[in-house]
Design brief:
CATH class: Mainly Alpha
CATH topology: Outer membrane efflux proteins (OEP)
Strand content: 5-15%
CATH architecture: Up-down Bundle
Distance between the termini: 52 Å
CATH superfamily: Outer membrane efflux proteins (OEP)
Largest sheet: 4 strands, antiparallel
Order of helices and strands: HHHHHEEHHHHHEEHH
Helix content: 55-70%
Number of helices: 12
Structural class: alpha+beta
Number of strands: 4
Radius of gyration: 36 Å
């Protein structure tokens, strides 16, 4: 009997020492200096050649404001637009906060839960009885390494998700820039067309009054002028919408909204990018696919943790003391655990397995969609290039040549002024289509870059969440 008591006391001391050691180790979990943001900055440098800033202080905000003002002091370029978006887009800054949330979960997972203190005092007449205990959740301690590994994986997944979202914001900024410049260019061209139409309508009216042109000719010229005026109004509205979209992506307002854009779109490159094996390259490099793989692996590890805690998810141990007058003080330890009498943990395991299988199928779907997305975006890119080049090399030069020939015929008095005006009218559709084709190329170029690096599926500013997993004690882990 004495030997068993000695063994119990010795075992209790051993476990108690282990608990204190674990407490000391658990308290070592700290936050990193960069909060996981260095990996996002590295992606921005490697894939965009740009720097991005996480605004976490007033000093950061002041630095960004100074840099944005400097970039806005001159006509904006596509690279400047991307740079401003990486610095100033508020939705992106909100997405960067996901890094801090995920790291906090990681640090929390590596820390031992606080001990539980119990105190009881009873009295009967002159008799007093006091019981006190200090217990620790041993099972939480045993599962800390696995829980930390799961949260570390989720932290890495969040880094990839945030980096992918950063690339999407850069792509949105590039597309919004080309849309705004093209819309502005169309407005300026349509303003010139309206002036020409107005002059033609006035000329037809004067010639009608002089008896040199009939009412039909006057009506046709006036109709063209009226239709041009309506079209100019629509083009101006489209330009306002495109400009506002650019301002939203760049996070600009107030005086900064008065940014200057160039008069024309950039010229078409001499050759399109030749990208053989786009599918394989996308599967290797796309950050969203890497994040999906990490998420699936993390859910698999969470499933293992759920099975480990199926029957016993609370196991507590600690010293206990009883004081009962007039008896001497008694010391010992307390051990408590849940008995799986009603809840055998089957629901938690079933949920974890269902979430894992869901993630497996979602990962397969993501890979299939990525293959299709890069094929489609690359085909759109090549087609847009061919169309823009066709307009630049064939249609617009032919229209110009026809206009020059008609001008020579007009100077030779072989055709009248209204024939010359009719030819100029036909040029309107060709020039507008040429502007649209060049805009479509640059937009397709931005989409193609994005499809190869981050994917097009997630909307701008989307929050990054991972489904909850059952963990120790039947609770829910964030994400």
């Amino acid at each position: 009997m004495n030997e068993s008591r000695y063994a119990a006391r010795t075992g209790g001391k051993t476990v108690y020492v282990a608990v204190l050691s674990a407490l000391a180790l658990g308290g070592c979990a700290t936050f990193s200096a960069d909060g996981g943001f260095d990996s996002v900055k590295e992606v921005a440098r490697a894939r965009l050649g740009k720097e991005t800033v996480w605004q976490r202080s007033e000093q950061d905000g002041a630095t960004v404001h100074t840099e944005v003002e400097k970039l806005l002091s001159q006509p904006l370029s596509p690279d400047d637009a991307v740079r401003i978006a990486l610095l100033n887009n508020r939705g992106l800054q909100a997405t960067y906060a996901e890094l801090g949330i995920a790291e906090a979960d990681l640090v929390q997972a590596g820390r031992f839960p606080n001990p539980r203190f119990g105190y009881q005092r009873t009295a009967h007449g002159d008799e007093r009885k006091i019981e006190s205990s200090l217990t620790f959740n041993l099972f939480s301690l045993l599962t800390v390494p696995l829980a930390t590994e799961i949260e570390a994986r989720r932290f890495e997944q969040t880094k990839l998700d945030v980096a992918a979202q950063m690339l999407r914001v850069a792509g949105e900024a590039r597309k919004a820039y080309f849309e705004a410049v093209a819309a502005q260019q169309s407005v300026k061209y349509m303003e010139d067309v309206k002036l020409a139409a107005e002059a033609a309508a006035e000329l037809a009216a004067r010639m009608n009054r002089a008896g040199n042109a009939g009412r039909l000719r006057q009506a046709r010229e006036h109709l063209f002028y009226a239709e041009t005026t309506a079209q100019l109004a629509r083009v101006r509205l489209a330009a306002v919408s495109a400009r506002e979209q650019l301002l939203r992506v760049l996070g600009l307002w107030g005086k900064q909204a008065e940014l200057k854009l160039p008069d024309q779109l950039p010229t078409l490159p001499k050759q399109p990018d030749d990208l053989p094996g786009v599918e394989a390259q996308a599967l290797r490099e796309r950050l969203d696919l890497k994040a999906v793989r990490l998420r699936t692996e993390g859910l698999a590890r969470s499933l293992g943790l759920t099975k480990a805690t199926r029957f016993i998810n609370v196991l507590e141990f600690g010293p206990a003391r009883t004081t009962e007058t007039p008896e001497p003080r008694k010391k010992g330890y307390e051990l408590s655990f849940e008995i799986p009498l009603f809840d055998w943990g089957g629901a938690r395991v079933a949920k974890a397995e269902a979430l894992y299988m869901q993630a497996v199928h979602e990962a397969a779907e993501a890979a299939i969609n990525a293959r299709s997305e890069v094929r489609e975006s690359y085909q759109a890119y090549r087609t847009a290039y061919d169309l823009a080049k066709h307009y630049a090399d064939e249609i617009v030069p032919l229209r110009k040549r026809i206009s020059e020939e008609n001008l020579l015929r007009y100077n030779g008095m072989l055709i009248g002024v209204f024939e010359l005006i009719a030819d100029a009218r036909e040029q309107v559709a060709s020039v507008n289509a040429s502007i649209d084709a060049l805009r479509d190329y640059w937009v397709a170029d931005a989409d193609q870059r994005l499809a190869m690096t981050a994917g097009l599926g997630r909307p701008l500013g989307a929050r990054l969440k991972t489904p909850a997993m059952p963990v120790i004690g039947g609770g829910e882990a964030r994400h």
